[in-house]
Structure formats: structure tokens, C-alpha cells
Design brief:
The complex is a heterodimer.
Chain A lengths: L1 H24 L1 H9 L13 H22 L7 H10 L4 H28 L8 H23 L4 H15 L5 H9 L6 H33 L8 H4 L35
Helix pairs in contact in A: 3-5, 4-5, 5-6, 6-7, 6-9, 7-8
Chain B lengths: L1 H4 L16 H18 L1 H22 L1 H5 L8 H9 L11 H29 L11 E5 L8 E7 L9 E12 L2 E8 L10 E3 L2 E10 L2 E8 L3 E3 L6 E3 L4 E3 L5 E10 L2 E14 L6 E5 L21
Antiparallel strand pairs in B: 1-12, 2-3, 2-7, 3-4, 5-8, 6-7, 8-9, 9-10, 11-12, 12-13
Helix pairs in contact in B: 2-3
Classes of the chains: A mainly alpha, B alpha+beta.
Chain lengths: ~270, ~300
């Protein structure tokens, strides 16, 4: 029994600070609610693509913050500082490589996640709003790619940005204004680099973090969509004699519905 | 818990619009509109009309249940109350203190927020649009430009920006017209997407570096039969007219003047088309536009002038 007693002591040691925290903030319960919520029985690996995208984004955040400590966003120093990070600073090559390749991983995972949501019909009622937020997140992620591409400040970066800004400037009506804003004037100059730097590491990431929070909130509120080949998705569990809707996922939140809850009564009207 | 989270419903069935064909027709109208803008204006107008009509039908279809759903509003009890009570101000008409305080708090908050935000927004946006003038650039003595041959000149257009502030122009001396030298000065910026065009032809002689009042200028003679862009294959003839590829107009040009025997570049301007050659060319000039933007034709309505 000594072991058991010791175990109790250890448990008490771990639980005591958690209980202290829980009593004063409710944070432990909140984290539990977030992590241990119910999901449909038939979830599979495709459902992890969203978390994978989030992980890739967090990697970009962390490596980006570290890179910003050594990068110098001025036309005279930008290229040299990138060379310094890559060739001189200890492990600089690794962190820059993670940020550079991680950017592609982020976009690829984002589109796979988008494809999963589309093919599973997870954008339908009541989750339309989350799809819309996701589309905004996608454009912002692509904006990160566009603005980050200039920062190495080599010939590829410079001319690619010249072309990218001019493409923006060709949008009807708003284009000329957008182009001048991105360039910081009528011609590309030293302000262009710092504008892109600010957009890349302050403006767009801030928006991304805010919208990702909203995105996750809606996922938690509305629950996870079961795959379309499951009985729950086909609406069989609620059969009341009428044919299942063909091509339409039964439109109700599935957080609990797919967990074997008894069928809901349909009131006549 | 989950039951609390379910969205509100009007009945057992959620409000679903019935399947409808209108979105497809609407999308077709939009597609015709976009294609029409490029290909032919009448088609665009028809496309817009289709989109408007079917968009209206779609919205009507989609909102039918919502529009029918609200029950008849009850006859206004307030008016009856008012009638009964005569001239006495009725209870709901009073303007409570709490509403005033609420409005005052929100209003003051908005005011303070605006005072803080607007200057910041202005500073973010306005510098790109205010004071964007082109300084004249001294390119050096006229003797450096022999008649009827192009010279590639790279010069400092904006000081203090290092290599970023350098621009390139192709300069040709067309000889004297009425005792005044006539110059063709073409900007190297491709009017497709802004890459640097290159002269098509062999260079002549060694490049020379000179210093003028505007800083260093490098000059290189070139036998240019035209200009080409490495990025997307835009090609231009020796007058800057488009001959192939994606550009939508002729290459931009610079105004110029001659001061004390030196060539001075002025403001750049955009060119729709050049008729004729050299000193006799008729140039259709427009205000400087970004690459890719139409300066003439119907498409110019999409690109308003930006100060």
C-alpha cells in the first residue's frame, strides 16, 4: 500500500496547484472543455488536417518571431542580413529553412483541409459562416506568402514583387489606389520593403490569429461533421418515414447527434 | 449543453431554400459579363442584364419563406394608449436616463476611437498619394547622343535610395527640327507588369560613366531594332509600339528639355500609340499610368486617375 499512498501524494501534489488555478479562474475547466469535447464516432485522419494547418501556422509564428530578431528590413541591409542568418548565425539556416519551407507546408495543408471540408460537406448549414471565415483565412495566408516573398530582397524577390504589385494595380477601379498603397508611392522604393515587412509580420498575422480564434470557436460550438458515408450524415438515425435528403447533409449540429443520442422527436410543425 | 447550442428554429425543419436553377443562370450572366468586358461590350451588357434579372429571381426565391414568415404585426397599441391618455406623455415615450447614458458612453467611445484611429489610418495611407512628383534628371551633355542611334541611359531618379533609385531609359537623338533637337526618350519599364525591357540589337562601343548634377549616369550605345521584356515576352518596335505579347499600350516616355547643352528628363507619361517615326512621330500621350493599365479605349474607365 505504500506505493498507493505515494501515488496519492504525487497526485495531490499535481492537483493542488491545478485546483488552486481552477478555483480562481476556471481555466482548467475551460481547457478540459476544449480538449475533451465529444466528437462523432466516425472521425478519421482527414479530420486532423485543420489541426495540422494550425500547427504549421504556429511553426510560422515561432520561427518568424525569431527571424525578426536578426532580419533588418532596410534596402541596404535586408539581403546582407538574410545571408548572415543563413550562413553565419548558429542554426540560422535551420530556422530560416523551417520558415521558408513551412510556408509552403502551411498553404498545402490549408488547401487539403479546405478540400476535406468541401468533400465532407462540412461547409453546409449551420457551418456556412465558418467556411466564409476559412476563405478569408485562405486569402490572408496567401497574402502572407506574397508579402514574405519580397523580404529576402534578391532579384527574384524584387521583380516578383514588381509584377505582383502591378497585378494588384490592374484590378478595376480600386487597382490604381491599391498599387500606390502597396508601393508606398508611384514607384517601388525603400518604403515598399518596410510596408511589406509590416504587413507580413504585424498586420496579416494579427488578423490571422483573430480569425483563427473565431474559426476554432465555431468548430467547438457547432461540433465536428461526421464523414458523409456514415449513417448519421445520411440522416438515417432520424428516419421518420420520409426519404433521406439526397445530396444534403442533415442540417443540424452534430456535436452530440452522432454520438448515439436517441432520435429527436419531430414535432409536427 | 449541446441543446443550448443548437441554433434557433422556426419549426422542426430548419429554414432551407428549395433547390433552384437561378444561381446557375446568375453565374452564366456573370461569366458572360466578364467575357464581354474583354471581347465585346454588347455581350457584357446582355450578361449584366441576365445577372441582374436572375440575381433578383434568386434572391426572391431564397427569401420567400423569410418574407412570408413574419406574422402580421399587431395593431399598434401605442397609438391607442396615446389616444386614451390624451396629451399626457405616455410612459414608453419618456427618454430614460439609462438610455441617455448608454448613448453617451457609446458616442464618446466612438469619438475617442475616431480621434485616435483616423490620424493613424491617414498616416498609413496618405504618404503614398501625396507629394509624388518627379524631379527633373540631368542626363548630361547632348554630344553623348549621336543622331539616329539609341543610347541606354541609367540614371538616379531618386536620391538616397541607392540602386533602388536608379531607372533606365532608351534615348535617341532624332536630329534638329526647326533648329531644336528632337529626342525620343522611352522608359525601360515594360507596360505589361513593370519588368525591365532590354534593347534588341548589338551594343555599340564601350559603356561610359559620366557624372552630372543629378549624380552618376551610365550610357551605352545600342543598335536597337526594338525592345523586349524577359518576364512575359512583351515585344515593342523601335518607337515603343507593342508588336507582340501581353502589353496593352506603347512604352512610356519622358518629357525632356535642354538646358545649357544638357539633356534634362522631365515627367514620364504614358503613350497609347505612336504613329510615324522619329521626329515626325505623332504620340498619343496620357497621364502616367501603372503597367498593365489601359490608357485609351473603353477599358480606361476601370483605371481612375490617382494623384
Amino acid at each position: 500500500m505504500a506505493k498507493s499512498k505515494r501515488r496519492q501524494q504525487i497526485e495531490a501534489l499535481i492537483l493542488a496547484p491545478l485546483n488552486w488555478l481552477e478555483e480562481r479562474s476556471g481555466l482548467v475547466g475551460a481547457v478540459k472543455y476544449f480538449l475533451f469535447r465529444k466528437v462523432p464516432r466516425e472521425t478519421n485522419w482527414f479530420h486532423t488536417l485543420g489541426s495540422a494547418t494550425l500547427t504549421a501556422f504556429v511553426v510560422q509564428l515561432v520561427t518568424g518571431v525569431i527571424l525578426a530578431m536578426y532580419y533588418k528590413p532596410s534596402p541596404d541591409e535586408a539581403y546582407a542580413s538574410i545571408q548572415n542568418i543563413t550562413n553565419e548565425l548558429t542554426l540560422g539556416w535551420l530556422v530560416r529553412g523551417m520558415h521558408r519551407w513551412g510556408a509552403s507546408v502551411f498553404i498545402i495543408l490549408l488547401f487539403l483541409h479546405m478540400g476535406r471540408v468541401f468533400l465532407f460537406g462540412a461547409y453546409k448549414y449551420p457551418r456556412e459562416l465558418n467556411w466564409l471565415i476559412g476563405v478569408i483565412l485562405m486569402t490572408m495566408a496567401l497574402g502572407e506568402g506574397l508579402t514574405g516573398y519580397l523580404l529576402p530582397w534578391d532579384q527574384t524577390a524584387y521583380w516578383a514583387t514588381v509584377v505582383a504589385i502591378n497585378i494588384n494595380a490592374n484590378a478595376p477601379i480600386v487597382g490604381p489606389f491599391l498599387g500606390d498603397f502597396l508601393r508606398g508611392g508611384t514607384e517601388i522604393g525603400e518604403n515598399t520593403l518596410s510596408i511589406f515587412y509590416s504587413l507580413h509580420m504585424l498586420v496579416i498575422p494579427g488578423g490571422l490569429i483573430g480569425l483563427i480564434t473565431l474559426h476554432l470557436y465555431l468548430v467547438i460550438r457547432l461540433g465536428v461533421t461526421p464523414p458523409p458515408w456514415t449513417a448519421a450524415a445520411a440522416g438515417y438515425e432520424e428516419s421518420d418515414g420520409r426519404p433521406a435528403r439526397i445530396g444534403l447533409v442533415e442540417p443540424r449540429p452534430r456535436g452530440n447527434g452522432a454520438m448515439g443520442r436517441p432520435p429527436r422527436e419531430r414535432t409536427g410543425a | 449543453m449541446a441543446d443550448d447550442l443548437e441554433p434557433e428554429r422556426h419549426g422542426a425543419e430548419p429554414q432551407h431554400p428549395s433547390p433552384t436553377i437561378w444561381p446557375f443562370a446568375f453565374a452564366g450572366g456573370i461569366a458572360l459579363l466578364l467575357v464581354g468586358i474583354v471581347v465585346s461590350m454588347p455581350a457584357a451588357v446582355i450578361g449584366a442584364a441576365i445577372a441582374v434579372v436572375f440575381g433578383f429571381l434568386w434572391i426572391r426565391e431564397a427569401t420567400r419563406e423569410v418574407r412570408v414568415a413574419p406574422p402580421e404585426p399587431e395593431p399598434e397599441p401605442v397609438s391607442e394608449l396615446a389616444v386614451e391618455e390624451g396629451d399626457e406623455p405616455s410612459e414608453p415615450d419618456r427618454y430614460p436616463r439609462s438610455v441617455f447614458l448608454e448613448g453617451a458612453t457609446l458616442g464618446l467611445g466612438a469619438l475617442i476611437g475616431g480621434i485616435v484611429t483616423l490620424p493613424a489610418l491617414g498616416f498609413m495611407v496618405l504618404p503614398a498619394f501625396v507629394g509624388q512628383e518627379y524631379e527633373p534628371v540631368d542626363i548630361g551633355p547632348l554630344e553623348n547622343f549621336p543622331e539616329n542611334s539609341y543610347v541606354t541611359a541609367t540614371f538616379v531618379y531618386k536620391k538616397g535610395e541607392g540602386r533602388l533609385g536608379r531607372r533606365t531609359a532608351f534615348i535617341r537623338n532624332n536630329g534638329l527640327v526647326n533648329e531644336v533637337p528632337s529626342m525620343t526618350i522611352i522608359s525601360s519599364r515594360c507596360v505589361h507588369m513593370g519588368c525591365p525591357t532590354q534593347p534588341q540589337g548589338p551594343p555599340g562601343g564601350e559603356p561610359t560613366e559620366i557624372r552630372t548634377s543629378s549624380g552618376p549616369v551610365s550610357l551605352q550605345m545600342v543598335q536597337a531594332s526594338g525592345f523586349g521584356c524577359p518576364c512575359h515576352g512583351g515585344a515593342y518596335d523601335a518607337e515603343g509600339n507593342r508588336t507582340a505579347g501581353p502589353p496593352v499600350r506603347a512604352l512610356d516616355r519622358y518629357e525632356y528639355s535642354i538646358r545649357n547643352g544638357s539633356l534634362i528628363l522631365g515627367t514620364p507619361f504614358s503613350v497609347g500609340e505612336v504613329e510615324g517615326e522619329g521626329a515626325k512621330a505623332r504620340i498619343k500621350a496620357y497621364r502616367l499610368a501603372d503597367p498593365g493599365q489601359h490608357v485609351d479605349g473603353i477599358e480606361q474607365i476601370f483605371y481612375p486617375y490617382v494623384p
